[in-house]
Amino acid sequence: MAAAAVLGLGLVLAAGLVVALLAGVLVAAGRGARPDDTPAATLVAARQHAAVAAVLALAGGVVVALLLVSQGDGLGPVRLAGVPGLPAALGPLAGGLVALAVLAAGERTWPRPVGTVRTASLRRRTVAELAARRRRLLGGTTALGLACLAVFALTADATGRAVPALITSEAVAQGYGGGASGPYPGAPYALPLSAGLLAVAVVAGVVLHLVARRPAVAGTREEDDLALRRTSARSVLGVAQLASGGTVGVVLLVAGAALLRSGWLLGGWAAVALGLAVGLVSLGAAATACIPRPAPAPGAAPAGPRAGAQR
Q: How do 180-181 and 306-310 pair as beta strands?
């Protein structure tokens, strides 16, 4: 028991170390990057910073998720409130939160060019302008997950980890009745998972506001700065969609399998089909978020409010 507790504590500390290390790398890279005070050099450095932040965020999230998923029944003897398998169920959401934290650190550490005179657009951006469709997809996935978890919590048996079997007249005539099938995401799983889904959605919204409100990258054209913000917003929502959509998809598949074994065929097949659809759509959304978009064509900067001679 003591060894298991030490192992669980060690894994938690390792996850925290991963987050701190990745955030430190971003901070050091942002402070150390001092590109020449030209629009081209500044833009290249900014794009490299966005790519490094996305890669580190994904790597950190995957490491933390795998650490938790590999625990199976729990971290040490505590087993997270005595619920077997709960750390593994929360693994993707925890990984998503870690990745979002790294992306938030990236938003605070953009490289600044050398020089005493710099210009930057003062136009304010909105979250809806940066990623309206992806934000709606994440909101719909979160709402669907919360609704399904509520249904599963209400339909589970007294243990909260199984679903009662369907009792039919044929089963009663043959002497069969009662029983339950699991694992099933009843209240012991539904409540923490619901909190995790809400946490990912809220943190993603906070990081998106950081993306929209951060100062423009000095020396870049307005369309280049907008492209940088949209790249950051895609990374944020891609990570959040992968964590939330992956969790909802797996939960639906697990619940559907339990329902099918218990005789609830219609509900079981519906849950399985919905789980596959949510999982595939979320995976596709995360994959397309990683595809680089073509850079805006070079040209004269558009007319608009500019901040000049800022020291």
A: unpaired
